[in-house]
Design a protein that fits this description.
Largest sheet: 6 strands, mixed
Number of strands: 12
Structural class: alpha/beta
Order of helices and strands: HEEHEHEHHEEEHEHEEEHHHEHH
Radius of gyration: 19 Å
Bound molecules: benzoyl-formic acid
Distance between the termini: 39 Å
Length: about 325
């Protein structure tokens, strides 16, 4: 693993005998793929506070750090191997481990619906089998992704543009002709500043968190997909917990997932902040909007089908209804 060796050694030493435990209480050590205090650690931090408040004497969470502790694209390996007990991560950062994880952001229903129709159980099983983690909780419903640009476009043609991507946008943007560069969020600002990219894919929220608004001129609407940011627990750690500890962690998951409903309002606030920061909106309409959204959906699913046809069909059956 490539992440900071000293840090990893310290973590391994700390977790060599499993999570820190007293007779009844266990403390899970957790790392976020996103900077602490920013949008995509929000639910993770709220969840941690909820557990630490409601799980006293049963289970606690200690947040060890963000991307400075474990680089985002290494965090999947770290939670799989048990170097950390818990991770706040998006499937776009561990496509090597769960290649059909790309289906999650193609979902057109909510985690509540997925829990009811068996899709959550399927995603949990895939994560357990392929990544050795419990798929504990899901945030991001009701928040889409956008293309953000330093120069305007006329329609849904991205040829000639170099765009920062992750697996979320890869199939769509490449079908629309863009050149793609994959980076972690931490590299976006300097790539924009250097002029190495003409834009980037990112959700509706969080653009101002790392100062990208200073380098961003346009947001392209409409948004597409649904954000997925997931709480994952190393499966050996999960299986080693008591029923009471697991039940408390699951109760917290249901609680935090209910806050996904706040995203509709938060999107509006965020768009107002972007406008205030001078980001103009390019709204694709009519046939252009149709092409934008159809390409997003078709290219997205075509990719998952290529990875695993039968699993893609099963996932599509319960994520799109
Ligand atoms: O753009 C990204 O880095 C990305 O894929 C993502 C996914 C979920 C939340 C935020 C960003």
């Amino acid at each position: 693993m490539k992440f900071n060796a000293t840090f990893a050694a310290a973590l391994i030493a700390a977790t060599a005998f499993g999570p820190a435990a007293t007779a009844e209480e266990v403390t899970l050590r957790a790392v976020s793929a996103f900077n602490l205090g920013t949008t995509f650690s929000r639910e993770f931090e709220a969840y941690t506070n909820w557990i630490n408040e409601n799980g006293k004497g049963v289970v606690q969470i200690e947040i060890v750090g963000g991307p400075e502790a474990v680089p985002p694209f290494e965090l999947g390996n770290a939670v799989m191997a048990g170097v950390v007990d818990m991770a706040n991560n998006t499937s776009a950062f561990y496509p090597n481990l769960v290649p059909t994880g790309d289906a999650i952001h193609l979902a057109e229903n909510t985690i509540q619906e997925q829990r009811a129709n068996g899709c959550y159980a399927l995603l949990d099983r895939i994560h357990q089998e392929q990544m050795n983690v419990k798929y504990l909780a899901h945030a991001g419903d009701g928040m889409g992704f956008h293309l953000y640009l330093t120069k305007p476009i006329e329609g849904p043609d991205l040829s000639g543009l170099t765009i920062r991507t992750t697996p979320v946008y890869q199939a769509m943007f490449s079908a629309l002709g863009a050149n793609l560069v994959r980076t972690a969020p931490g590299e976006v600002y300097s790539a924009l500043e250097r002029g190495a990219i003409d834009g980037y894919g990112w959700p509706s929220q969080g653009v101002l968190d790392l100062g990208w608004d200073e380098q961003t001129k346009f947001r392209v609407d409409p948004s597409f997909y649904n954000v997925d940011v997931n709480l994952l627990v190393n499966l050996d750690v999960w299986n080693g917990l008591t029923d009471e500890q697991r039940a408390k962690l699951e109760e917290g998951a249901i609680w935090v997932e209910e806050t996904n409903a706040l995203n509709a309002e938060r999107n509006k606030e965020e768009y107002a902040k972007q406008a205030g920061a001078g980001i103009e909106t390019i709204t694709l309409e009519g046939a252009d909007a149709e092409k934008w959204l159809t390409t997003a959906r078709d290219a997205g699913w075509a990719h998952v089908e290529e990875v695993d046809g039968p699993l893609a069909a099963e996932l599509r059956g319960c994520l799109v209804q």
